[in-house]
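Appendix B. Raw example, untouched.
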Amino acid sequence: MQNMNRESVLEEVKKRGSFLDEVSEEWKDDKEIVMAAIEQDGNALEFASNRLKADKEVVLASVKKVGWTVCYADETLKNDREVVMEGVKINGQELYYASPELRDDDEVVLEAVKNKGLILKYASKRLRADKKIVLTAIQNDKRAISFISDDTLKEDEDIKKALE
């Protein structure tokens, strides 16, 4: 694949985003090619250059499509509220990849536990004791009760009802 020209690479990734895995490093670092690959297949972020994995526009394009690809993002973007929020809206599991600061962000954690209750496990200790977040997590998955950090919440009437 080394002898392909830019236009042929661009055309191919528009048909099959995962083709990005088969091209030279030069094309994996070409923003237009990477964006075209992600447009076709959000998972193509995996094959982008490290420079583009640190580009917020590129990462957001991928995360908005598939959510979970925030795991491929540069560490700086794992502390970017907008990027992580987009990921947890699609898949709460993305909280696992978030920075400690965002694991302590009420809105980010609440959004994450709405669609994956067990992800409460990765919330900050403070938020694992927050009634609203714990209740939302338990309503999504009763097993989340094992991750609360304040045992007195287990005696709360709303929590008990949610566990019934």
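End of appendix B.
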